[in-house]
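We both want to read discrete structure tokens more fluently, so let's practise on a single case. Once you have written the record down, we can walk along the chain together.
***
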Amino acid sequence: DKEVRAIFLRLFAQLFQGYRSCLQLIRIHAEPVIHFHKAAFLGQRGLIENDFLSKVLNGMAFAGFVSERGPPFRACDLFDELVAFEVERIKAEEGNPPKMIKHVRELAEQLFKNENPNPHIAFQKVPRPTEGSHLRVHILPFPRINEGRVQELLQEGLARSQGAPPATRGDKKCVVPAGPPVGMFPCS
């Protein structure tokens, strides 16, 4: 699963390399608007006649991509690193499948680490009860729930949450690396 995702990550990193140099921040509105200069991107890469890439850049998914990844100050991730710093490595691996596979496996491992940051925490599975265990005398019945106490706990929790500051996500924001200009990339 992670290796397939790593292959797609590399594909989109190659496809959109240099996109940051074609972003324009328009400040005439109440809030700044990020615009992608499609003609400049296609022209600098020599792909003006490429129908597939034109349709990808016109799609809603790419518009969402630009609005999400356009801000110059936000939390960076593996995709940003690939687009900004791995340009030469990806170019060098084009004719060398073993190196490409090695890089895909490294990316897959990084994706796995990103999704499982604490691998040492293991959840032990609860074993299934043995056959006939329900007939044993020493098993106590499940206790009855005190509805009044449950309501008290819920009210206490609500009172605490209303007085507490809103929870915020701890993403560390940084300046997004621009990477090399669009003209450096091959037209393949």
User: Anything to note?
Assistant: The chain has a mean pLDDT of 80. Residues 97-115 form the longest helix (19 residues). Residues 1-116+171-184 form one domain. Residues 27 and 56 are 26 Å apart (CA to CA).
